[in-house]
Amino acid sequence: MRYLPRLIEPQVRAAVRHFPALILTGPRRAGKTTLLRKLFPAASYVLLEDPDTVARVRADPRAFLEEIAPPAILDEIQNAPEILNYVRTLIDRSPTRKGRWLLTGSQEAGLMKGVTESMAGRAAVFQLLPLSRMETPKVTLLRGGFPEVVGRPSVAPVWFRSYVQTYLERDVRALSAIRDLVAFRRFLALVASRNGQILNKTDLAAPLGVSVPTVSEWLRILEVTGQIILVPPFFENFGKRLVKSPKLYFVDSGLGCHLLGIETEAQLRRSPFLGPLFEGFVAAEVVKLQLARGRAREIYYFRDQQGLEVDFLVPVGSGRLALLEAKASRTLRPEAGEPMARLAKAARGHTVRSYLVHAGAPGAAGIAAVRPGVRAVSVEELPLVLAGKA
Questions:
Q1: Scanning 49, 59, 195, 228, which has the fewest C-beta atoms within 10 Å of its C-beta?
Q2: What's the pTM?
Q3: How many Å apart are CA 260 and CA 280, to the nearest integer?
Q4: Cα dihedral across residues 63, 64, 67, 70: positive or negative
Q5: Which residues of the chain fall short of a pLDDT of 70?
Q6: SS3 148
Q7: From the CB of residue 213, how many other CB atoms can be counted at a distance below 10 Å?
Q8: Residue 363 pLDDT
C-alpha cells in the first residue's frame, strides 16, 4: 500500500533532534510503525510481540539492548515495559546523543506510567490516531481512517471483524482479567449505539447484566487503547448550571459503523445513527489536528440543565473559543445556529466564533453566514477554524 504522509511528521522530525528518545502511542494499526520506519529507514527494528523476543527481554534486558545498534525502533513497548529502565540507563550514559530510541505502544495509560517513572525529560511523547480527512480525502464517515481500510476499502468488513477479534484477544486480555469476551464484544456494540451521548454507566450496565464498576473498567480499557474519546463538559459555567458527565465517541467512525452493522453508504444515510456518527467524526478530526500540531487535546461540549447544548467548544488561543455544531445534513437551516448564538451571548470574557460543520464538499456551502455570527464550514475547512482564520 502506498505510504500516506502524516501531519505529525514535522513534529516527530523536530523531536528526534532534541530528545534522546521518542514515544509514539495510539490505537493498534493506526500507522505508528509505518510512520517511524518511513521517517527513519536506517533504524534497527524490534517487534516486542513475539513471545521469544519478550522472553529474552525479561531474562536479560541489559544484554538484549546492548545487541541493538541505535537508532532503534522498539515496537509495542507495552509488552515489555521493564525495558524502559534500561533504555534510561543507556540514555544517561550519553545524554547528548539525540534520536536514539524510537518506541511505540498501543496501551497509553500503562505505557505513560512507565514513561513518567523512567523517561521523564528524556523522551518526547506523541499520540497518533488513524488517518484524518486532512491527510487524505479517502477518509470517510463510513470507512474511517485506519490506513489498511483506506488503502483497500473493499475489504473493510473483513478487516474490521478481524481487528475486533485481535483487539479482544490481545489488548483487552492484556489489560484486564476479563473472562467473558463475548460480553465485552456486546459491550463494544452497545457503546457504539451510545456514540454522541452523555455517558451513563448505569444505562450501559443494565442491558449487559454487569455492575457499574465493571462498565467503568471496560470503558477505561477502551480509552487507554485509543478506541474512544471522552469529551468533557466545558469548565466555565457562564452563569449556568451545567451537566457534568462526559460525552462518548468512537475515535474511528469506520469501526463505529462496523459495530452498528452499517456496511454501505445507503445504510448509513438511512441510519438513525448518522447524526451521532458524524458528530464523532468531527470530534476526532479536531483531536487529530491538535495532536498533529503537537498541542494538548482540548475539546469540550456544553449543556446546561435548561437544555441549551452546543456540540463542541474548542479553545483556539488566549481568550478565544470556536463553537462547533456538527450537522450530517447538507441542507443547513438558520435555526441550527441558534444554540451557538445563545451561548456566544453568555460567554462574556471570550472572543467567540461559531461554525456549523457540514458533510458537504469544501465550498459547497462556503465559509458563508448561516445566520448573523454563524458560518458554515466543511470538515476539510476545520484547520482554518482551529487556526482562527475562518
A1: 59
A2: 0.92
A3: 14
A4: negative
A5: 107-117, 236-242, 361-369, 390
A6: helix
A7: 10
A8: 59
337: alpha, beta or left? (left if phi > 0; alpha if psi -120 to 50): alpha
Q: 182: which 3 cell numbers?
A: 463475548
For residue 155, give the DSSP letter. G
Query: What pLDDT, on the 0 to 100 scale, is given for residue 315?
Result: 92
Q: CA-CA distance, 389 to 124, in Å (whole number)?
A: 29
Q: How far apart are CA 265 and CA 187, in angstroms?
A: 25
CB 116 within 8 A of CB 85: no
Distance CA(10)–CA(338), nearest Å, equals: 39
Give domain 9-127's CATH number out of 4.10.910.10, 3.40.50.720, 3.40.50.300, 3.60.20.10: 3.40.50.300
CA dist., res. 81 & res. 56, Å (int): 13
C-alpha 347/C-alpha 315 separation (Å) is 13
What is the C-alpha to C-alpha distance for residues 153 and 166, in angstroms, rounded to an integer?
19
Say whether 199 sits in a helix, a strand or coil. coil
Q: What pLDDT does 111 receive?
A: 59
CA 318 to chain centre: 24
CATH 1.10.10.10 boundaries in the chain: 147-283
Report the pLDDT value the prediction gives residue 178, as an integer from 0 to 100. Answer: 75
What is the rounded distance in angstroms from the CA atom of residue 242 to the CA atom of residue 346? Answer: 13
- Comma-separated ranges of CATH 3.40.50.300 domains in the chain: 9-127
Phi, psi at residue 279, to the nearest 5°? -60, -45
The arrangement of secondary structure in 147-283, i.e. its CATH architecture, is Orthogonal Bundle (1.10)
Q: Among positive and negative, which fits the CA dihedral 68, 74, 80, 86?
A: positive
| The C-alpha cell that represents 177 in the structure block | 482479567
> Amino acid identity of 165?
Q
Kindly state the DSSP code that residue 198 receives in the 8-state scheme: B
Could you tell me which residues are beta bridge partners of residue 105? 25
Gyration radius from the chain CA atoms = 22
Are 94 and 65 in contact by the 8 Å Cβ rule? The answer is: no
